[in-house]
């Protein structure tokens, strides 16, 4: 027995809601920046770049600070006092940068960017490491 059109429509709508609701969404408190964009920005201005990967890894040339992503509060005295300062975060692949951004946001920092693909993306673009 064929399904009525109304049932098919409801099933289709339910499927769309489930698929789009489960899709990974970046938090609105952190911007994502590509390796190319970050490199171009670093050529134009002095930025505050923070490596948050644990264990410590090779750093992107120009990194200002290393803070483990899960110990942000412990090292907040090393961060800029002005909480409007733009902070650019990276780890090896991206997730630790997002976790660090959440902690920084909770501390009152609201101008946060995370390197998409992390240090891996930086290296893939043949950009300088220290």
Mean pLDDT rating: 85
Shape designation: globular
CATH topology tier name: Oxidized Rhodanese, domain 1
**Largest beta-sheet characterization:** 5 strands, parallel
Helix content: 25-40%
Instruction: Evaluate the radius of gyration.
Output: 20 Å
**Could you say which structural class the secondary elements and strand pairing correspond to?**
alpha/beta
Instruction: Name the CATH homologous superfamily.
Output: Rhodanese-like domain
What distance separates the N and C termini?
Answer: 68 Å
Beta strands, count: 5
Order of helices and strands: HEHEEEHEH
Poorly predicted tracts of residues: 17-24
Task: Offer a quick outline of the entry.
The chain has helices at 5-22, 35-44, 95-106, 118-124, and strands spanning 31-33, 48-51, 65-66, 87-90, 112-115. It is α/β, with parallel strands linked by helices and 130 residues long. The protein has a single domain (26-124), classed as Rhodanese-like domain (Oxidized Rhodanese, domain 1, 3-Layer(aba) Sandwich), CATH 3.40.250.
Describe the protein in words.
The protein contains four helices and five strands. It is an alpha/beta fold and 130 residues long. The protein has one domain: Oxidized Rhodanese, domain 1. Strands 1-5-4-2-3 form a five-stranded parallel beta sheet. The protein is globular and about 65 Å long. The N and C termini lie far apart (68 Å). The relative contact order is 0.20.
